[in-house]
Amino acid sequence: MGIDDKLEHKGEEVKGKVEEAAGKVTGDRDLEAEGKGDQAAAKLKQAGDDVKDAFR
């Protein structure tokens, strides 16, 4: 698992947090939900990274 992948997945999580916060501030529930979904997807990818690292 490369550091590039880990950074990309962390970036996706941060992007999701920003979208969620923007959705809350503007009252845009769709944007807020999209941000939460992005965060969940990024966390799944990060968990996969951890599993791959454990087997190295």
TrEMBL record:
Region spans: Disordered: 1-56
Pfam families associated with the record: CsbD (PF05532)
Biased composition (Basic and acidic residues): 1-37, 46-56
Every CsbD-like domain range: 5-56
Family: Belongs to the UPF0337 (CsbD) family.
Record protein name field: CsbD-like domain-containing protein
Organism: Cellulomonas gelida
Organism taxonomic ancestry: Bacteria, Bacillati, Actinomycetota, Actinomycetes, Micrococcales
